Amino acid sequence: MFPTLDPLLHSELRLAVMSLLVSTEEAEFPYIKEQTEATAGNLSVQIDKLSAAGYIEVEKTFKGKKPCTICRITPTGLKAFEEYVEALKSYLNAH
Amino acid sequence: MFPTLDPLLHSELRLAVMSLLVSTEEAEFPYIKEQTEATAGNLSVQIDKLSAAGYIEVEKTFKGKKPCTICRITPTGLKAFEEYVEALKSYLNAH
DNA sequence: ATAATTTGGTTTATAAAATAAACTTGTTTA
DNA sequence: TAAACAAGTTTATTTTATAAACCAAATTAT
Are the beta carbons of A22 and B91 separated by less than 8 Å? Predict the structure, then answer.
């Protein structure tokens, strides 16, 4: 009746991050921070969790002399996102 | 870009309860427990929170000699649910 | 009759999670 | 060269979810 909602995705900030990455395929830390209006600390933690789960991959490079953290969604992450959306529908289908 | 998701509804169990009540308009505690597969303790706590927020109303009656807790969604709760669904769409609209 | 079990929950304690504050490292700018 | 800034990370705090323990009344078994 009510399938389990992937706890990794059922989090406002992590879901926002994944949502961004689904459409952009690649985004830098400051951009994600700006779009989600999250604090850097919170975002850092949530990105770690998504990365640890293999939902996103994180590349640390440089942009000139400045560090630059780039995030991309993985196929695993995309699949999880799609399954999460499907599962959610069971909860919302009154509409 | 990403509207706040009402924290009262962005909870697997509370959302399941609300989802049930949106379609049934009235349900007894044991029925909700069965449908959501929640433990009684957890369900009791979450029902209290929804009730305290005015999202549902809880009526305690008797069914013969046995206590019977009936839950109904309120107009406030229905509105909140609909707004939550709308807000969620911002996060999911890649699909 | 009374002891054990079940029903229908509530209360309390614990585990996990979200979040922000404080900190670090290097880079500009005054 | 000192102050401010950028880009994060780490740590601490607060909140939340969840289950375990508990309670009262009713039913069932002995």
Answer: no
Contact A13, A46 (CB under 8 A): yes
Given a contact cutoff of 8 angstroms between Cβ atoms, the answer to whether B36 and B79 are in contact is: no
User: For strand D, which nucleotides have at least one atom less than 7 Å from a protein CB?
Assistant: 6-12, 16-21, 25-27
Q: Does A4 touch chain B (CB under 8 A)?
A: yes
pLDDT at B15: 98
Give the domain CATH number at A57.
1.10.10.10
Quote the pLDDT of residue A25: 82
Confidence band, pLDDT 50/70/90 cuts, at residue A40: very high
Please report whether residue A5 resides in a domain. Answer: no
Within 7 Å: CB of B45 and strand D?
yes
> Could you list the residue range(s) of the whole structural domain that residue B16 is in?
12-84
- What total number of domains does chain A contain? 1
What's the angle, vertex CA B61, arms to CA B58 and CA B80, rounded to 5?
15
User: Smallest CA–CA separation between B91 and chain A, in Å?
Assistant: 6
